[in-house]
């Protein structure tokens, strides 16, 4: 159950962080205004909070593992929100990052 909780929290964190960054991007780069930027800043703050709910108490481990989720999630977000079409190397790279996340978070540790 800890694995499921951790993966769910990574997903929530990714939605807040990637969504927040996308909102800021839309507000500034696409000239949608300060309301979009403000919503993005709030979402980014919620991302920081979501990360603290992880069952593992090691900040460095959580952030390192989350990096893999961020990479894959960013590609997925681009596909859904912006019509981005990843090539096979994007997909392979994201898979490698997710494998790294799984090793960091869930591999058995001795000692």
Short description:
By secondary structure, this protein is mainly α.
How far apart are the termini?
22 Å
List the uncertain runs. Answer: none
What is the ordering of alpha helices and beta strands?
HHHH
Largest sheet: none
What portion of residues is helical?
A: over 70%
Radius of gyration: 15 Å
Description:
Helices cover 80% and strands 0% of the residues. It has 111 residues and is mostly helical. Helix 1 (2-29) packs across helix 3 and helix 3 (59-82) runs antiparallel to helix 4. It starts with a helix and ends in a 5-residue tail after the last helix.
Summarize the SSE layout with pairings.
Elements: H1 2-29, H2 34-51, H3 59-82, H4 88-106
Helix pairs in contact: 1-2, 1-3, 3-4
Keywords for this entry:
flat; 111 residues; single chain
């Amino acid at each position: 159950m800890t694995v499921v909780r951790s993966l769910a929290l990574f997903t929530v964190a990714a939605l807040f962080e990637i969504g927040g960054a996308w909102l800021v991007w839309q507000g500034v780069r696409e000239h949608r205004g300060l309301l979009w930027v403000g919503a993005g800043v709030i979402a980014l703050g919620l991302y920081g909070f979501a990360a603290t709910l992880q069952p593992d108490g090691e900040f460095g481990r959580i952030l390192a593992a989350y990096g893999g989720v961020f990479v894959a999630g960013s590609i997925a977000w681009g596909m859904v929100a912006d019509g981005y079409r990843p090539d096979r190397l994007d997909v392979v790279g994201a898979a490698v990052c997710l494998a790294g996340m799984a090793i960091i978070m869930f591999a058995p540790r001795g000692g």
